[in-house]
Amino acid sequence: MSTLGAISGLSLGAWTALPEARRLALRIVREVVDEASKRGVKMEAVSGLRPDWLVKAPRSVGEAIIEIVALRRPEQRSGMIVRLQEGRSAGVEDLNALVAAPLNQRLVQMVREIESGARRMTPANFAELG
After folding, report:
1. How far is the first Cα of the chain from the last one, in angstroms, to the nearest whole number?
2. CA within 13 Å, CB half, 27
3. In a structure prediction context, what are the per-residue pLDDT tens digits for the chain, which is 130 residues long?
4. How far apart are CA 77 and CA 14, in angstroms?
5. Structural domains of the chain, ranges and CATH numbers in brackets
6. DSSP character for 46?
7. C-alpha to C-alpha distance for 126 and 123, rounded to whole angstroms
8. For helices 19-39 and 102-116, what crossing angle results, to 10°?
9. 49 in helix, strand or coil?
10. At what angle do helices 59-70 and 19-39 cross, to 10 degrees?
11. What share of the chain is helix, strand, coil (3-state, %, to 5)?
């Protein structure tokens, strides 16, 4: 979820208000859950929600859950955003880079492009992940 904030520059409430971003979030979580399953990692709750349960829910329910969770802290901005704005490494290696799956790897590439100045933080980045 932090990485979607980082590539868009949007707060949690702002990006979760976008249907395409919620769909992306579910796809990202699906890749993480699949990778964790392959590695025998037990999923634990994040903000009171287990990712493996989230991806088992119907898509509309999963999207609604993401939006509801964001209501707790709608103005929250990812720590990655702050680090990128300060010209520091976003720390994407600690999150998405650990997941050897197409969408997560593309997110890593996008964040690295932002770090290098080759890409801007903008919601338009969501369209490339479509």
Report:
1. 16
2. 18
3. 889 999 999 999 999 999 999 999 999 999 999 999 999 998 888 777 889 988 899 999 999 988 888 888 889 898 899 999 999 999 888 878 788 899 999 999 999 999 999 999 999 999 999 7
4. 10
5. 2-129 (1.10.1040.10)
6. B
7. 6
8. 120
9. strand
10. 100
11. 65, 0, 35
Angstrom distance (rounded) from CA 17 to CA 38: 32
Tokens 């409430």, located at residue: 13
Amino acid at 70: A
49 beta partners: 46
Q: Which helix (H) or strand (E) holds 4?
A: helix 2-8
Name which of 30, 107, 118, 98 is nearest 66 in CA terms. Answer: 30
